[in-house]
Design brief:
This protein is an alpha/beta fold. The protein has three domains: 92 residues, Arc Repressor Mutant, subunit A (Orthogonal Bundle); 111 residues, no CATH class; 172 residues, Dna Topoisomerase Vi A Subunit, Chain: A, domain 2. The chain is built from 17 helices and 14 strands. Strands 9-6-12-11-13-14 form a six-stranded mixed beta sheet. Helix 8 packs across helix 10. The model has no long low-confidence stretch (mean pLDDT 91).
Length: 390
C-alpha cells in the first residue's frame, strides 16, 4: 500500500467517524469528501510533476477497488475524492485500522470494569461514557486501549497506598515492572487533579504517599518533642531540624511551649521565619498520611493552642489551607493571606492566569470571598516569599 492511499482513506474515515452518520443521528444522506489539493497542497504545483502523477495513479487504484469515487477536471486534475461508505469494513481492513465503533466498545467495557474501584474513578468513568455517547473522544485516550487500561489501573490502586512508597515500587506493585508508572505519571496526576479533591496538581502523588525520595518534616521554634524517650527542646536550637517520615510514628509527645503553631507552605519563607513563641512546621510542599498524623499529634497534645497556616495568596494557597483543615480536622487560620498584604506588597504581585481566575471564582461565597474578589478585581496574586517575615 502506498502512503498516499493510507493518507486519503484515513482522512475520509476521520470525517466519517466524526459525523452523525457514524452515530446514527443523521436525517439526510451524508457524503464524505475532500479536495485532493487541500489534502496535498503541492498537488497543483507544476514543479511537483512526480507527485501529481503518483496521486493520480493512487486515486485511480482506489477507484478500481471501489473504495472511493472522484471528480476530475478536464485537464485530468482530480478535484475531490469521496468515500464509499458501502465498503467501510473492507476499507478498515485494507489500511489495518480498528473501526472507531469497535474501539468505543472496548473503552466502554473497560470503563464499566473500573468504575466501581473508587469514587474518583466512578466520576471519571461515568463522564467518559457520556462523552463516548456524544461521539466525543474519551479524555486521556491516545488511541491505544491497552495503554488506557494502564491509566485506569494506576488510578484504581493508588488510594490503597497507606505508607510512603517509592514510585518505582508502586510501579512494580501495579504493573510488575519498575518503569511503566513513570511513563503515565503525568496523565495520572492530571486525571486525579481534574476529578479529585486536591489543592495542587504538582503534589498529588506525594499527598497519596507515592514518593520519589524519602520525605521529611522540617520543624523549629518553641516546642519540646520526645522521640523514643529522647527529649528535644527545639527552642534551644538556632535553626531547624528535619525528621524523616519513618521516624514520625516514634514521637511520643509534643509540647508546644509557645502556644502557637504555624504551618508554612514554602521553604524560603520557613527558613526566614523567626517569630518568637511559634512552633513552625514546613511540610515539604505537601502533607501525606505521615505528615497529617504529625499535625494530628500536635493538636492532640496541644488542643488549646492557636493554629495558623501561612501560604501564597493565590488559589493554590487557599485550597491548600482548606485541604489541610479537611484532612487533619484542625481549624488552621490564614496568616498574612489577605487584602492588606496584597496592597502593601503590590509591587511584587503577579497577574492572574485564566486557571487562577477559574479556581478563585470557585471560592466566591467562602470565608475568603473579600480577598478573592479583590484579587479578581485587581488581577493580582502574591507569593509568600515576597513578604518580609524575618
Amino acid at each position: 500500500m502506498m502512503k498516499y492511499e493510507k493518507a486519503i482513506l484515513e482522512h475520509l474515515l476521520d470525517k466519517y467517524e466524526r459525523s452523525k452518520s457514524f452515530t446514527g443521528d443523521n436525517r439526510i444522506v451524508q457524503s464524505f469528501s475532500v479536495k485532493l489539493a487541500k489534502l496535498f497542497p503541492k498537488y497543483g504545483d507544476e514543479a511537483e510533476y512526480d507527485l501529481f502523477c503518483s496521486l493520480n495513479d493512487t486515486v485511480s487504484e482506489l477507484e478500481g477497488m471501489e473504495y472511493i469515487t472522484s471528480k476530475r477536471k478536464k485537464n485530468g486534475i482530480v478535484d475531490t475524492v469521496t468515500l464509499n461508505v458501502q465498503l467501510l469494513d473492507d476499507i478498515y481492513r485494507y489500511i489495518s485500522r480498528t473501526p472507531k465503533a469497535q474501539t468505543n466498545e472496548q473503552l466502554i467495557s473497560l470503563l464499566d470494569t473500573y468504575s466501581d474501584k473508587n469514587d474518583l474513578l466512578k466520576r471519571f468513568c461515568d463522564a467518559q461514557k457520556i462523552r463516548l455517547s456524544q461521539n466525543k473522544k474519551a479524555e486521556y485516550f491516545d488511541g491505544d486501549v491497552t495503554e488506557y487500561e494502564k491509566l485506569l489501573k494506576a488510578v484504581a490502586m493508588i488510594f490503597d497506598i497507606s505508607e510512603e512508597t517509592f514510585i518505582r515500587d508502586y510501579s512494580i506493585k501495579v504493573f510488575g515492572d519498575s518503569k511503566t508508572f513513570e511513563s503515565i505519571k503525568s496523565k495520572v496526576k492530571r486525571l486525579l487533579f481534574q476529578y479529585g479533591d486536591f489543592p495542587e496538581e504538582d503534589t498529588i502523588l506525594e499527598d497519596l504517599n507515592i514518593i520519589r525520595n524519602p520525605g521529611h518534616v522540617y520543624i523549629k521554634g518553641s516546642a519540646v518533642i520526645v522521640i523514643k524517650g529522647q527529649r528535644l527542646d527545639l527552642s534551644e536550637l538556632n535553626g531547624d531540624i528535619a525528621i524523616s517520615s519513618a521516624l514520625l510514628p516514634e514521637i511520643s509527645s509534643i509540647n508546644v511551649t509557645g502556644r502557637r503553631v504555624m504551618t508554612i507552605e514554602n521553604l524560603t519563607t520557613f527558613n526566614a521565619f523567626h517569630k518568637k513563641d511559634y512552633f513552625a512546621v514546613y511540610l515539604g510542599g505537601y502533607h501525606n498520611s505521615h505528615r497529617r498524623n504529625f499535625i494530628k499529634k500536635i493538636y492532640q497534645d496541644n488542643p488549646d493552642d492557636e493554629y495558623y497556616h501561612f501560604g501564597d495568596i493565590d488559589a493554590g494557597g487557599f485550597y491548600i489551607l482548606l485541604h489541610l483543615r479537611a484532612k487533619t480536622g484542625v481549624h488552621f487560620m490564614p496568616y498574612h493571606m489577605g487584602i492588606s498584604e496584597l496592597q502593601r506588597y503590590k509591587a511584587y504581585t503577579k497577574p492572574l492566569t485564566d486557571n487562577d481566575k477559574k479556581r478563585l471564582a470557585a471560592l466566591n461565597g467562602s470565608e475568603f470571598s473579600d480577598t478573592v474578589n479583590y484579587m479578581l478585581e485587581h488581577d493580582c496574586k502574591l507569593e509568600q516569599e515576597a513578604l518580609d517575615m524575618v
